[in-house]
Amino acid sequence: MQNIGDYLIPGGIAFIMLGIGLSLKFKDFSRVFLRPKGILIGLTGQFFFLPALAFLMAWLLPIDPLHKVGLVLIASAPGGTASNLVTHMLKGRVALSVSLTSFNSLGILLSIPLYLNLALFWFMGTESEISIGFLDTFTEIAYTVVLPVVAGILLNEYGPHKLIVKLQEPLRFILPAVLFLIFGYHIFLEDGGSQTTALMANYGLFIPLILFNLGTMIIGYFLSIWAGMRHDGAYTISIELGLQNAALAIFIATQVLERSEISLVAVMYSSFSFFSTLLIAWLLKRKYGKSKLAATS
Question: Is the entire prediction scored with pTM above 0.90?
């Protein structure tokens, strides 16, 4: 039986991506594909660095094996709409962020089954056949990300210019509000608010999850700079590493594995990571952006 969340979440995500598209032009994507260094660094960080760090932390931390699997699962689900929105809010390289979302939405077809089965075997001594349908995933990402962004770009390129410009300022506040509505519904209202009780009972997990968020962003930023990325590209990749696709991780844990204990890690991560990622990226932008300007002046 369908509920309001079945329409609220995909509809809200599509609206956010439409709003982001209104700030872009097709020429913004030419830089991404003509100079693919950002794509390669971002995908390497998302598909190799994040899972490796999650496995290491899960092995070292004295936490429930189900939560160890949950940590690997959230690290194996690269960021989606939230990372696009934070990049948009901080005026980073939005085209790079959206491109990474499109690429990693296909990469998870291989990465999530691989890493999740490895985590189940290593930490719990079991295996599970994880199946993520290619057609379903492609259709979902097309309807909620690609088509709304393209529609927004077309409106920006060929629509009423004065109206589009006027919409830019209110959209800076409307788009985050829509995302917070989606987060709030999932944490406090879905399933009768049972996730709120679980959050309170396992508050100790917040510490390693915050460290994971902070560590991936800082390491991602400086590795990007070391690899020759410009400042705006480096903090865009940092955002991509800091925000994960919690909705996908929750779906796999609850609907595929049918273990709500595993989904708890994703729920907890999503409860703070938008705000912490926004704050850390803002600090990186201000501190090291000023350093770059000072060095070139």
Answer: no
